[in-house]
Structures are given as C-alpha cells and as structure tokens.
Design goal:
The protein is of the alpha/beta class. 34% of the residues lie in helices and 21% in strands. A six-stranded mixed sheet has the order 2-1-3-12-4-13, sandwiched between helices. A five-stranded mixed sheet has the order 9-6-10-5-11. A two-stranded antiparallel sheet has the order 7-8. The protein is globular.
C-alpha cells in the first residue's frame, strides 16, 4: 500500500466519487445530510464487527443512532472523513494516520480516549513452522504502505531474522536492513493481498484484520507475532479535526471502550484481537 498512501489529488477525487456512488447514494441520514445518525467508515474485520455489536446491543440505550459503512481498503475511510461523507472512521493506528495526513494534506485526528483494540501483526507461512526454518533466499511478502511495512520489518528484526539501522522509525524500508543472514527477498504488496500471496511466497507478514478475514489467527497460526505490551499500533476512532467533541462521537467513544465491548473482543477473537483499554 506504499503507492496508495502516496495518492494524488485525482485518486483522492476518484476515491471520493466511488464512495459517493456506493455509500452516500444509499440514503444515509448522517449529520452531513441534516440528520442525527452518526455514520462511521470501517474495515469489515474486526472494526465493522465491533461497531455492529455496539449498534445492535449498546447504541439504542445510549441514545445513539449509528450507521456503519464498510470498506476493504485503507484510503477511502480517510478521504470520506476528510470530505464530510462520513462522520468518523475506525480502522487505523496513529503511525498510519500521521503518515497519511502528512502525504495527503488531510487533518484527521484520533478521538482522545477512544483507542479500542490491537490486531497483532503476524508472520504466516504454508511451508515452515518457525522463522528459523526459512531457507536461504526465501521470499517474504510485506505490506507496502509506509507504516505497516516498517512495522513488519521491526517484527522480523525483533525475532532475529534481520537487522535494522539503529534508530529507524515508522518509515523503515528494506533499504534500512543492515543484516540479512538468510538473504531474504522482500515482496511488497497491498496489505489486503497478503493472505492470497501465501501460496506464492515462503512467508508473509499480514495485518491482523486481513488475517482474520482469511481465517488466520495471530494467536494460533502465526509463526511469529507482535507483543501487545507497549504497542503503538492500537486502532482508534478518528474524525476530522474540530469534530472530536461532537456529542455523538463522544457517545460512541464511550461505548467502544466499555466493559461490554472489552468482553465482546475477548470472547469473539480469542487473542487474535486484543482490547487496548
């Protein structure tokens, strides 16, 4: 997703048009249309599932009208918020949002106190049971958006497979690899394509939401996975700057970090998704 993160104005416009045709034409009564429904863009798993749980079990009692719009990419949910097509989104972590805002001139912010969950990034393989078993010259697929590629490389480095330049941050690339004893080759792919790549590569580093959609569990199937402790990649509710205090947003933030949602995440995902509150 490195290329999609560097989208041009034309692509932004196309993305907004696509969203307008697929979502806004459906009769949403969001604030932008004069209604009081809070419309939230999300990726389907687990964000869409968590929001649907809130909608079905908690929102009515809290006096919140909630509509969930699902998207399978990491760009449209932000362009939709920026252009006012939806009120909020829930799909990303802070390093990704910081990078997105910088590259696209957007002003989307995290809602304070609304970090909901962590999806541990994992390394998956159909051919080996542990990273040490990767053969020399093996190909490892990585997410190609800036922050998640860096995150994947840091995971490999934390497990001793590669070494990274000292002090490298959230924009690390394969060029920052300082040691590579196995001579691993890196294949950069859009994050959503990584589960489908497993038959063509020796291993792939896959984002938690896409792993879940492919019936892969970081807790059970990954040959290496991130630790949730002190992890900066928690997913949160985000809005366009200035909308943080919208009463509807505040209601949703409170519900997303409620004991009921924590129990839902723990029961449903069994460690594949971890509450971050």
């Amino acid at each position: 997703m490195r290329n999609t993160a560097k989208i041009t104005t034309a692509v932004l416009a196309a993305g907004a048009l696509t969203f307008g045709l697929s979502a806004c034409g459906s009769g949403s009564d969001s604030k932008a249309d004069g209604g009081d429904t809070l419309t939230v863009a999300a990726t389907p798993t687990p964000q869409g599932e968590i929001l649907t749980y809130v909608k079905d079990h908690l929102a009515k009692k809290a006096g919140l009208k909630l509509e969930v719009k699902e998207f399978t990419d990491y760009v449209t949910p932000n362009t939709a918020v920026q252009q006012g097509e939806v009120d909020a989104n829930y799909f990303q972590h802070q390093p990704y949002l910081t990078d997105f805002n910088k590259k696209n001139g957007t002003d989307i912010v995290a809602v304070p106190g609304a970090t909901v969950h962590l999806e541990p990034l994992g390394v998956y393989s159909k051919g080996v049971k542990k990273l040490d078993d990767l053969k020399k010259g093996a190909t490892v697929a990585l997410p190609n958006d800036t922050t998640n590629e860096a995150r994947a490389l840091k995971l490999l480095a934390a497990n001793g497979v590669i070494g990274l330049k000292s002090g490298v941050g959230y924009d690390a690339t394969p060029k920052d690899v300082t040691s590579n004893p196995k001579g691993l080759k890196f294949k950069e792919l859009e994050a959503a394509q990584l589960p489908r790549s497993l038959g063509d590569v020796d291993a792939a580093v896959i984002n938690g939401n896409y792993a879940l959609e492919a019936d892969l569990s970081p807790a059970k199937d990954a040959i290496a996975a991130e630790s949730p402790k002190d992890n900066p990649y928690g997913n949160f509710l985000a809005v366009k700057k200035g909308k943080e205090d919208d009463p509807r947003v505040q209601k949703l933030a409170k519900l997303l970090t409620s004991p009921e949602v924590k129990k839902f995440i723990e029961d449903k995902y069994q460690g594949a998704v971890v509450p971050a509150f």
